[in-house]
Amino acid sequence: MIQVAGLSQTFKARTGTVEALRNINLEIANGEFLAVIGRSGCGKSTLLRLIAGLLRPSVGGVLLAGEQVTRPRRDVAMVFQRPALLPWRTVLDNVLLPIEIFRLKRSEHQDHAMRLLAMTGLTAFANRLPHELSGGMQQRVSLCRALIQRPKVMLMDEPFSALDALTREELAVELQRIHMELGTTVVFVTHSIQEAVLLADRVAVLSARPGRLRRLVDVDIPRPRSFGHNAHLEQVATVSAELHQLLLHNDEPQQHTPEPRPPRTRTRRGVLT
Amino acid sequence: MLAIAIWWLATEAFDVDPFFLPGPPDVVDAFGRLPGYLLRETWVTLLETLIGFGIAAAGGLVIAVVLAASRTVERMTLPLIAGINAVPKVALAPLLLVWIGFGSQPKIVMVVLLCFFPIMISTMAGVTSTPSDLGELAHSLSASWWQTFLKVRLPWALPQVFVGLKVATSLAIIGAIIGEVIQPDRGLGSVVVSSGQSADTPLAFAALTLLAVMGATLFYLVAALERMLVPWAKAVSS
User: Taking every annotated instance into account, which residue ranges of this chain make up the domain ABC transporter (chain A) (predicted)?
Assistant: First the structure.
């Protein structure tokens, strides 16, 4: 279980401090698929990096299975927006990269890697270099690379947003299958309502700058779900509409705080807040 | 080929005195007169060039890695290295004579002085240009500095390293010749000097031709090595 407690994050930029996240509280159950949705710049990637231990929170903290997260863990895998494959390594070698970094025996994990490649339909490409693959295939490779760690938690940062629409849907359906098969906990950052409704058990909607948890929306649609043909079209429409509303009418007026102006000269502490 | 034809045509058409610009037949003739001598001196220059190039490549790579690893060291030493590089190397040649004396060594030092900087700078640029997503990937896997360096940053830098090495091949030959012209005791540089003194322009041209061939060969050898080691580089840059 992941517990996010009172998490806030401010960055010091050259033009002053930027508040990225404010007081996020969340509990994510084991095996749950949580989508985090919000407009660009709302701090969803920051939230993911905080859970991953890539960033240190300014206030609050993240507990993973009862342990404070202070740095990246081996049972947590990340999938980035871009595939981030090493161009000089074959597909198979790219998938086995975490194994090498963890100083485990390559030979013991080779079969596992091949099974993962088979699961994502990449068996024939195991010995190709990344640039010989399409964008969708490259992202599949990076998914395999995350799965080879046998992670308890997968953190995905808009993993399909750089792909074309069709490939995106294809991969989303595939991810759903993998999630159902392996039961990994997934935190999935996206700005696509469609993806969120297809994949998530719950959707966390973040408001823009500073990112606050606006609402947690349950998606009670039985799996496997699919785009288009669906026995639960009405439910899908309802949830999608709700998410749309939440994203479009972002801030309640009374909570609206003006964006901090980048101070040209040094302002005294407390003047801006 | 076309260049040689134009050269030949020009010397024939304008009836240029071989003392000013010898035509290709005069140059070939000069080869024929002293083949043993020319080959021996070519060998001397080639050895100086290769040894100096090797030392500069090894040194440039190591120093670049050290500088890229530590910002403090970089801030401390890079101004010094850049300053040394800015000194005209020709002006150093007489000093090298005083410090090291005659023979091949001062020429090798000259080659190293000329080649080192471009190799180091391009390697540094390569090692520090790792894309942020690859860096973040390594971080998320808790890779150590050394692992990140060996598995990600160094391979990523190789295409840039080769840019530096290719630039350095021609500089290596220039370095060897500077050394030999200033201290004309041996090598193709001394052939150019002595043929100038004896007004044997065709011989000087023969020596220059040999240098050009040597330079082109070195360049393409390095290029071939690059194709072997980083076949993926073209695909990434396009």
Answer: 2-233
Q: Kindly calculate the radius of gyration of chain A based on its CA atoms and give it in whole angstroms.
A: 20
Q: What is the mean pLDDT of chain B?
A: 85
- How many CA atoms are closer than 13 Å to the CA of B28, on its beta-carbon side? 5
How far does the CA of residue A49 sit from the closest CA of chain B (Å)?
9
Give B-chain residues touching A87 at CB under 8 angstroms.
232, 235-236
B212 CB neighbour count, 10 Å cutoff: 12
| Token couple for B231 | 């076949």
pLDDT tens digits, B97-153: 778 777 788 888 989 999 998 999 899 888 888 888 888 888 888 888 888 888 898
Separation CA A31–CA A51 (nearest Å): 16
Three-state SS for B203? helix
Instruction: Find where tokens 């079969």 sit.
Output: A111
Cα angle vertex A81, ends A75, A86, to 5°?
Answer: 75
For residue A271, what are the domain limits? 1-75+194-273
In the DSSP assignment, the letter for residue A60 is E
A157 within a domain of the structure (yes/no): no
Distance CA A168, CA A187 (A): 17
What residues in B contact A52, CB-CB < 8 Å?
140
The answer to the question of residue A90 being in a domain is: no
* Alpha-carbon gap, residue B89 to B85, rounded angstroms: 8
- Angle, in degrees to the nearest 10, between helices B201-229 and B187-197: 160
Say if CB B232 and CB B209 are below 8 A apart: no
Quick one: tokens of B230? 């980083």
Q: CB atoms < 10 A from the CB of B11, how many?
A: 19
Q: Name the nearest CA neighbour of A50 among A203, A242, A259, A206.
A: A206
N-term to C-term CA, chain B: 31
Q: What is the DSSP letter of A211?
A: B
Could you tell me the domains of chain B?
A: 24-232 (1.10.3720.10)
Q: Is the ipTM of this complex over 0.85?
A: no
Q: Which residues of chain B have pLDDT under 50?
A: none
CB contact under 8 A, A101 and B151: yes
Asked whether residue A166 is domain-assigned, the answer is: no
Q: Point out the residues of chain A with pLDDT beneath 70.
A: 228-231, 250-273
pLDDT at A273: 34
The whole-chain average pLDDT of chain A stands at 79
State the CATH number of the domain containing residue A269: 3.40.50
* Spatial separation of the C-alpha atoms in residues B112 and B108, rounded to whole Å: 6
Number of domains in chain A: 1
Whether B173 and B115 have beta carbons less than 8 Å apart is answered as no
| Chain A interface test: which of B132, B137, B146 (most A C-beta within 10 Å) | B137
